[in-house]
Amino acid sequence: MQNIIDILSPMVKEVELDDSNSPSYVKISPNELLPVCDQLHQHDELFFDMLSCVTGIDNGEEEGTMEVIYNLYSIPNEKSLMLKVILDRNKGNEAMPSIPSVAHIWKAAEWHEREIYDLFGIEFTNHPDLRRILMPADWEGHPLRKDYKNMERYRGMSVEYDRDEDATTTE
User: Fold this and answer.
1) Which of the residue ranges 16-25, 30-39, 105-114 would you say has the lowest mean pLDDT?
2) Which DSSP helix (H) or strand (E) runs through 94?
3) CB count, 10 Å around CB of 91?
4) Is the dihedral of CA 71, 74, 78, 79 positive or negative?
5) DSSP 115
């Protein structure tokens, strides 16, 4: 793990590494994302050639942050690494949080980033096709945000949500 820190140190303001988890993770700022990902992908000693997953997390209004987690794997080196990027959460009518797209580095990011955009509202700048992927194009809100309010009507239809654990369904 030390070689990753040594390689990333010149481009990252402060390398925060947590190797108590498996896989280890490095926390970086949003503006460090592209140079770090380029280096992790292109550096001969690292060569993280596979983006396994990108995950969005809403830490809630109290904490005021959201996260984007990148799970990387180096097939030839058999090493895993997570990148954790923390974003300020928007309040009220502020613009949604945004982060650069890494789809030009790892093609698999295109679908993952669209899913995060759709469900959390995090925008990925320079994404080749950023649009909803799971929800209808005219859906209001982002369902995995903690402040999401269920719609009462959609296209003139009543939308019912039964969240009562003791609810039973009759046919």
Assistant:
1) 16-25
2) none
3) 9
4) negative
5) H
Identify whether 168 is part of a domain: no
Structural domains of the chain, count: 1
Chain-centre distance of CA 9, in angstroms? 23
CA 43/CA 7 separation, integer angstroms: 9
Cα 33 to the center of its chain, rounded Å: 12
User: Which residues neighbour 17 within 8 Å (Cβ) at sequence distance 6 or greater?
Assistant: 1, 4, 5, 24, 25, 26, 27
- The two tokens of residue 26 are 């490095």
The CATH number given to whatever domain includes residue 122 is 3.30.460.80
pLDDT exceeds cutoff 60 at 93? yes
Residue 50's Cβ-count burial label (10 Å; 0-12, 13-18, 19+) is middle
pLDDT of residue 168: 52
> Rounded distance, CA 135 to CA 159, Å?
14
Domain with 34, as residue range(s), is 2-154
pLDDT-derived band at 151 (thresholds 50, 70, 90) equals: confident
Assess if residue 160 is contained within a domain: no
